[in-house]
Amino acid sequence: MGVAELLQKRKKELAEKNAAEGLAFREAFKQNENVIETPSGLLYEIITKGDGVMPVMSDTVLCHYHGTNINNEVFDSSVQRKKPAAFPLENVIKGWAEGVLLMPVGSKYRFVINPELGYKNREISKELGPQSTMIFEIDLLGIL
């Protein structure tokens, strides 16, 4: 077996492991009393509900966010950088866009994003491999 085949085999094994562990995590998370599931499988809980306007898909939003994998390893965090980030909702992963569209400005929600709404089979970083489930806490600060 050559290097390419070994790498492909490793990625497939990692994807299967991440998919199984992510499914177990999501099933457990769904049992929490305040968790809501959307038809797409996005899971969320409201930490703080703001009373501002709701964004639409064509908006650019200003957010503070903290993203981890199911093992609580941080893969991206504007909170750690101490600088909010602006995103056009049309340019983010499906789960992020779907979630933020549920939030009035001033809200903080926790989202558990399945691989189909995330990066699917792509390996993004050592913390976020193929078929990874992601957890985001997002503060919607404003609409630009």
Task: Provide the CATH architecture.
Answer: Roll
- Rounded mean pLDDT is 96
Please compute the radius of gyration using only Cα atoms: 16 Å
Just give the CATH class.
Alpha Beta
Overall shape: it is: globular
- Pattern of helices and strands: HEEEEHEHEE
Helix content: 25-40%
Measured by DSSP, the beta-strand proportion falls in 25-35%
* Class inferred from helices and paired strands: alpha+beta
Summarize the biggest pleated sheet. Answer: 7 strands, antiparallel
What would the CATH topology be?
Chitinase A, domain 3
Number of strands: 7
Report the span from N to C terminus. Answer: 52 Å
Low-confidence stretches: none
Describe what this molecule looks like in 3D.
This protein has 144 residues and is an alpha+beta fold. It has a single domain, classed as Chitinase A, domain 3 (Roll). The chain is built from three helices and seven strands; from the N terminus they run αββββαβαββ. Strands 1, 2, 3, 4, 5, 6 and 7 form a seven-stranded antiparallel beta sheet that branches. β3 and β4 form a beta hairpin.
Task: Considering the chains and any ligands shown, give keywords for the structure.
144 residues; alpha+beta; Chitinase A, domain 3; 3 helices; 7 strands; PPIase_FKBP_N; PPIase_dom_sf
